[in-house]
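Support case: magnesium ion complex. Customer-provided input:
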Amino acid sequence: MGTTEQHELLIDGEFRPSESGDTFRTLDPATEEPIGTVAAAKEADIDRTVESASAAFFDWKKTSPEERGRLLYALADAIREEKERLAELETRDCGKPISQAEADVEGCARYFEYYAGIADKIHGDSIPLDYDHVDYTIKEPLGITAQIIPWNFPINLVGRTVAPALAAGNVAVAKPAEQTPLSALEVGELALNVGFPPGVLNVVPGFGAEAGAALAGHPDVNGVSFTGSVVTGRTVAKLAMDNTTPVHLELGGKSPNVVFPDADFETAVENAITAIFTTNAGQVCSAGSRLLVHEDIHDEFIDELATRVAELSVGPGMDAPDVGPLVSSDQHEKVRKFIDIGREEVGEPVVGGEIPDREGYFVRPTVFDGVDNQSRIAQEEIFGPVLSVITFSDENEAIELANDVEYGLVAGIFTEDLGRAHRFAREVEAGQIYINEWFAGGVETPFGGFKDSGFGREKGLEAIESYTQVKNVCANIGADR
Ligand code: ADP
Ligand code: MG
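Agent response - structure generated as follows:
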């Protein structure tokens, strides 16, 4: 491979090297070859970014909501126009199948479009008091907001976290993950091209412990959005809390996918596969990583599932496989370790478990059957194509098992019984419930966790609440005061 492309930090409308001159390399996980050299932001760069963002905010908050919306629409269009190029870049940087990268780019555009439409509809209330008072609320932006983004949905999460921030009148400093920094820089450049003022959207790639921590702990940052692991999320929240900076955390999951005997068999099998294998090789916080199957259909269901999982193709994302490589050697090692743990806990998987003998971070989709819900492969987030199957015998047991985990991000149920589906929705501790479709919902539907899966909501109108603060104004207008 020849020289890799150089990428700089986007600060205050300009691409520039880091103050230290340090760089890092990002790899193509299908080949393990470097595809780019990227400036590594550190504390000095974050200081500089926040300082210029502060000046940018001074003007941006005075921009009319209508104008902010128009810029966001323009950015959505620009992203769509570049869809193919961006999707290819995304696949090369993070490994996912090209059709999924295309969907992620479209998703990113859709976030900017959705929040473009909301920019001029964010308003407060007028609250009736006695005859001598007038009272109203204003929803003000927080100011400088930081978006710390993981490597599993790099460009999609730029849209999800940055679009509502900008729509609400905040400026943004996005820190993509060190494994996948390229697409966020592209979105930053497109924002400049369509006319966003310098400093409104900054993009500062770098390592978590350096760039991420400096950003989360910066005293002049006014809001932090974090998506990633529980451990890192807690660290980020503590850093933010030292400055009383509000933070929302979108963390992991160990989400139950519950199948009852009356479910449409074909739909349930297909969704079980989408939930943990064919969506980004299971590297998704809302993966259906625990499959709870009723004992009456268990054997038939697992036979069919195993047959289809064995047929899934595994290969480089550009070849449009069912399952791409994992993002990094660290992640590859972690997943392999969990497959070993699974072998110790329950024995050989019913399908998968092999590590293809080739370059790239590949793992065959793996199903462990007869798993005890208390075992590690049922309790810990693996973040890869590894499914734990647990059997249950009635609705109460299914709900108990569904809730018997520290996480609470999503939960899914497959059944034709409407009452049962909604009882499940009521009883299960999770931020979103899927009925008869895994990953149901869209840009419009609020998303976030219960329990260890975090707090605060992204997507939908709820995200605007996370990016605004309410000011109440109360006036005595009495004639004889
Ligand atoms: P993973 O361990 O799977 O890489 P993380 O939750 O650690 O996931 O990473 C998510 C994001 O958080 C990335 O952008 C990463 O750089 C960042 N990050 C990691 N450690 C820290 C930290 N100590 N402070 C702030 N951000 C961090
Ligand atoms: Mg990469």
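The chain has two domains: 6-251+454-471, 256-445.

Case will auto-close in a few days if no follow-up is received.
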